[in-house]
Each structure stands twice: as structure tokens, then as C-alpha cells.
Prior knowledge:
The protein is an alpha+beta fold and 212 residues long. It has two domains: 52-126, Roll (Ubiquitin-like (UB roll)); 128-210, DNA polymerase, domain 1 (Orthogonal Bundle), CATH 1.10.150.120. 35% of the residues lie in helices and 14% in strands. A five-stranded mixed β-sheet has the order 2-1-5-3-4, sandwiched between helices. The protein has a two-stranded antiparallel ribbon with strand order 6-7. A hairpin with a 2-residue loop joins β1 (52-58) and β2 (61-67). α3 packs across α6. The longest helix has 25 residues, at 17-41. The termini are far apart.
Amino acid sequence: MPHPSDKDDDSGPGVSRRTFLKTAGVGAAASSLAGVAISQAAGAKVLGPGPVPLTLKVNGAARTVTVEPRVTLLRALRNHLDLTGAKEICDRGACGGCTVLFDGEPIASCLMLAADAEGHEITTVEALGTPEAMSPLQAAFVEADALQCGFCTPGFVVASTALLRKNSNPTLEEVKDGLAGNICRCGTYSRVFEAVQKAARTTAPTRPVKRG
């Protein structure tokens, strides 16, 4: 036998559960439609619900990917463009492992939708140097032994590159502050800071260095 409180009584005072649920459902649908209408009126491109083509400017080249609107920039880079330098670690923007440059500024690519990156310049660690032609910063990381497992290293290199482009001669405290968003779970911070300051003593910290 149903409990009295489980009955939908529309005759009594107040709002019944059935009426509340109907009203809430209509309100949610209306809000969703209103959001779409506002976006369309503002000239914003409405994407989805299925995969859509996007053109991303990555490392100086226009690259086309077809992804669902919910796909992050990080996953578009890794899973669709085979640029795996940026690492998916926390997926919450808390560790810095997925750092890329967005119009020259370091960002957590796990927190940005790929669709929001259209029309902007994306730079990944792959563009900063190669094993045969490392940047002075990358070379300094090797010389200072500024890595252990190396999983966080790409994020540190990208963030450090952005730091040195803004401040070519940072103090130790400025280096620490500039890399505050990057976590090394192996605890190699002192070597990382040493590498950044070593690279800072060069005149062009982002120019590739040929290694013979």
C-alpha cells in the first residue's frame, strides 16, 4: 500500500511533486533554448551536438580536426594531432603537465575546449626544439639533470619558456613564482630552478642550439 506522502495530491494547498517536476522540466528546456537563441543573436557559432570540424593554428600551421564540442584542447592535440608532449595528468588544471602557449601565454590545455582555441596561436613543446636541436632552456634542463621520471618536464619547459620571454633574467623567487602552477611529483624543483636560471644567462633563451 503506498505511503500517503507518495501520492500526488494536486488538490491541496502548495505545489505537488508532479507539478514541481513538470515546471522544473519546462524551465530547464526553456533555459537551454534561450541560451541557444542568445548565442545565435550574438553571432556566436553554435556547435554540436555531434562532431564538428575545427581549424586550429598549432605550431604555426593550420590543422583541421573533427571533434565533439566537449573535447578539450589537450585531447584534440594528443588524440587527433598526435602532439603528445602536453600530458594529461590531473585533468583539472592543477598540475601544469598539460601546459601549452595560447597566444604566447601559458595555459592549462585540459581546461580549454578545442572549439575555444580557434583563431588563436597554440604552441606546444614540440615546437620549442628537438633532441638534435634543443633550445638553450631544454639543453639547460639536460645539463642540470632537471628531471627524474620526466612526465612533468614538457609542462615545465613550456611554462619556463613563457617566463623567460617575459623576463630574461629572473631572480630565484621570480622563477619559483613563474612556475608555481607546475607540479613535479618527483620533487626535482631545485634542479628545475637551476636550469631556468642557467638558460636565463644566455642572450636568446628560445633560439635552438645545435648539438653535435
